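Page 47, continued from p. 46.
Same chain as before, 262 aa.
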Amino acid sequence: MSQKRQPAAIDETLRQKGAITTLARDYAAGHAISRHYHDRDQLIYASRGVMTVGTPDGTWVVPTHRAVWVPAGIAHRIRMSGIVEMRTLYLASGVAKHMPKKCCVVNVSPLLRELIMAACRHGNLHGAVSSQRHIMQMIADELSGAETLALRLPHPSDPRAAKVAAVLLNRPDDPRTLAQICELGLGGRRTIERAFVEDVGMTFGKWRQQLRLIHAMQLLAAGAKVTHAALEAGYSTPSAFIAMFKRTLGTTPKAYFKASAG
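Result:
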């Protein structure tokens, strides 16, 4: 995506010349980083807390022990849910050549986590230094085999789908069906359903499911109880939310955030 289509400031704070440059910062709950972009690929890792990364094409929720991959030149903003310990790698072109050209959330294995922390302790990694070159190679290998996670909420560009999405983004717990929302004059139900599939590659029902899951995770990261987060996100019962959470992340919300705190 070109710079002209993304009116954002380039972050020029990273002037080091290492093949991998790092940044380690802790943020308070609710802190927001305004829209910007980098001239390097970026791996944004949450060693604690939950981050929400937004681009013109979608929103990615980044829970603890996950990371979001942001290719060079893509404008993005970041918002913190709860206290966040952010550890970021900025990779020169070609270091992680097998990674996609689009944003995605990846699972951070225990080995990759230790490699990220080791890189942050160095500050910069240079290929000319043997020990640092080995860390770089291992990071690239771990990233190439990392599991990607379905924690993305795409932003519709179709005007009809975008209007419906805007209604629910303002209130994820809106109980109305798509047909009822369409009665606001936003278009026919079947037309909207087709627009979602053609535009974002998922049904309206799946998109709404993603919206509710992301909203609930943000609430949990900020300290909300499971019941409160489930109802605020629009789930009919806490058990319905727990089942969805477990299908997506492989464990219950309580167990997940307990492990994250540990």
